[in-house]
Q: What sequence folds into this?
């Protein structure tokens, strides 16, 4: 674990987060600055800076269930008609937190395109409700 990595602390249960999925290799949490209601981050528990780190290929192979289950929650529980999966690898690509992670953003027919990546203030104010809709009373 990187000493100052917020995502490592979240994955280890040492920092607060709204978990929607967890397994031995990965976890998924609601983004605290969501682009849309339900915007979720899927991250490996193991610290990897980006796609070029040694071990990234192996970690990607273990993220499949987390990505699948999270996408299923977003479509099933929020009624999303599609999912935009976003990844920034490296500062030049816009990566801000240097722990490999995927953004899953729920999409609906006719919604505005993801062009400026400006957080949605309304979605941020409903994080607790969104969490309840996604996981109910499940203890994650």
A:
């Amino acid at each position: 674990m990187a000493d100052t990595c917020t995502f490592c602390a979240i994955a280890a249960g040492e920092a607060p987060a709204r978990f929607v999925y967890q397994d031995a290799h990965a976890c998924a949490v609601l983004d605290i600055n969501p682009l849309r209601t339900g915007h979720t981050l899927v991250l490996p528990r193991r610290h990897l800076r980006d796609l070029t780190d040694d071990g990234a290929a192996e970690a990607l192979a273990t993220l499949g269930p987390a990505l699948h289950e999270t996408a299923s929650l977003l479509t099933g529980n929020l009624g999303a008609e599609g999912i935009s999966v976003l990844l920034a690898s490296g500062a030049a690509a816009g990566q801000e937190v240097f722990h490999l992670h995927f953004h899953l953003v729920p999409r609906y027919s006719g919604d505005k395109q993801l062009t400026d990546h400006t957080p949605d203030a309304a979605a941020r104010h409903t994080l607790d409700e969104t969490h309840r809709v996604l996981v109910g009373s499940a203890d994650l």
Summary: The CA atoms of residues 49 and 99 lie 4 Å apart. The mean pLDDT is 93. Helices lie at 6-11, 56-62, 64-78, 121-124, 127-135. The chain is about 30% helix and 20% strand.
